[in-house]
Description:
By secondary structure, this protein is mostly helical. 63% of the residues lie in helices and 3% in strands. The protein has 15 helices and 4 strands.
Amino acid sequence: DHWRSRLVTTLLVLLGLLGIGSAHAASSPDALATIRHLAIQHNGRHKPFDSFAREVLDRLTGSPRLGLQDPVETILALLASPEEWQDTRVIAVPFRPVREALGMDPKATHISLNEIVATRKLMRLLPALRDKLQRDEKLSMQEQETWDVFERFVLLNTLFEQELDLVPPAAVTDPSWLPILRPSGYPEEQQLALRNAWNALLTALREDQPEAVTSSAQQLATLLTGLPSSAYPARWRLRLEVLYNRLQPFQIARIFYLLAFLGLLLGAAPTRRRAATAGMGALVVGFLIHGTGIAVRVVLGGRPPVSNFYETMLWLPFVLVLIALIFERIYRARYFGIAAAGLAAITLLLADHLPLDPSISPVVAVLR
C-alpha cells in the first residue's frame, strides 16, 4: 500500500509538472548551464545553483528531482510562477499520523501550500512544539515530523519570496551573502542592474521566451561574477561540483560492484575463470570510481567524509573493498571479493534510499 500510494502521488506530481513546470521553464540548455553554475550561499556553504536546486527539492518533496524535469528548471519555474504552484502538492508529509492530524488522505504523501493555509491545522499544532523547543525538550517522532512539515512550508514560502543569497558581500569581513533583490552595500546602480537582470530572467521564464531567458541569464551571471568581491568561489570548483552532481559516481560504483559480485559468484566454479577475471576487473573499476567520488567530496567540502551518517555509509564500503582487494592479492580466494562486492553494493544502495542527507555540508564545531 505504501509503495502504491507513493507511485500514485509521483504520477500526480509528474502530471502537474507537465502542465505547470514545462509551460514556464528555461527550455534553453545554454540558459540552464549558465544558471546551474551560479554560486549561492545556502546552509553555511557556497555551492553551485545546481546543488542548491537538488538539495531544496530533496528537502521539500523527498526527492532531488520532480518527474523528468531538471532540478534547476523546476526551481526556476517555482520562482517565476509561484501562484501556479500554490495548489500543487509538493510539500512532503511522509509520516502517516501527521497526515491524519492535518486531515489529509492517509494515502497521499504530499500536501500543497494552499491546503495548509486553508485548513490551518498545522498552525494550531505549532505553539506547543515551539514551547517544547524553547524549553530544550526532546520532541516525539510525530512532533518532529510535524515540525519538519512546517519547515518545508517555510522553505516553499522562501522560494516564492525569492530569498536567494546569490550576491557575495561587498565587505570582505562580512561572511553573509546578500539576497538577489536586496544587494545592499554596493553602489545603487549596481544594485539596480542586479535586480533588473533577475527580474528580466523571471519575466522571460513566465512568458516562455527561450532566447530572452538565455540572454538575461548570461547578463545576470556576468554581473554577479564581475562584482569586486573575493568571496565568489573559483569557477573550477563550481564546475567540479556540477559534474559530480550529474555523474553520480556512487551510483556508477554500485553498478560495477553488483557486476563484480555476479561475475565472482559465477567464477567460483573452476570452469568459469573468465567470469572471475571479469568480476575482479569490475570490482577494481568500481573501487576506483568509488574512491574518486569520495575524493571529490573531500575537495568540495574541504574535510574528510565523516560528518554525517550518509558519508559514513560511503566510507565503510570503500575501506571494505580495499581490504578485500589486498586479501585477494595475497590469497586469490575470490571469497573476499564476493563478500566485499555484495556488501558494498547493498550499502551504497541503502545510502541512496534511506532518509539520509546526501548534501555536502560544513562540519559541525564539535567534529572540527
